Amino acid sequence: MALKALFPPLGTEATNPIVALRASFRRMTNYKIDIVSDTVCPWCYVGKNRLDKAIEAHKQTNPSDTFSTTWYPFYLNPDAPKSVDKQSYYEKKFGAQRTQVMQGHLARLGSQVGINFAFGGRTGNTRDSHRLVQLAKTKGEGMQTKVIEQLFNAYFEVNEDITDQEILIQRGVKAGLDEQEVRDWMANGKGGPEVDKEVAMAQRKFVTGVPNFTINGKYEVQGAEEPAAFLQIFGEVKETVEGQNGSKIGGENVC
Fold this sequence. Notes:
GO terms for molecular function: oxidoreductase activity. It holds the Pfam family DSBA. This protein is an alpha/beta fold. It contains eleven helices and seven strands. The longest helix has 20 residues.
């Protein structure tokens, strides 16, 4: 009997699911995304949700690809007091008219990515909120992102004061952290030195505004770019040979 009869051709990706699965795994790409942000930067919230949309779109045609995200801190105002009126702070910083224009612009863009921006409440120093994110980092990337989402929702959508440790504890617990561990962490200043070290690291890398995204160590997106910008880089990563230089996109929509 001919070998051809014993071992019939497997076919193509289109006709044989086994071939398609093998091809999919051969083409699988792992994306490591480092995000530098501040918890009171509205563009960081917009940028995160735009990134999420890009990942969702990419995985529709590349279901085997994986994504991991790590969040790093940034201080937009390292000398900010604990808690001040948010609206008054922005009007003093930018002027009443410019603040109104900025808020209207953010409200429109936010609605496109599932954010219902509210502009009341209080603002202030973000070091404690970054310490909470640092605790979440010790539990894995999934927990870190959950805490980030809780903080963004608290500050930008329901006007909670994330300089208040009780609010931080509540949000940490909502994300899935153990309440007693969060209380101990916050009360004893844990995570502070690590946060300060990571802020200094971002400065040494010449990060001057946030959000800042670095993909696979060499592709940089500055600002809350549209999902298409991330999709472009995801495509470049799949096609790039090891050792080839990366690229930089953006520079607008930053805090």
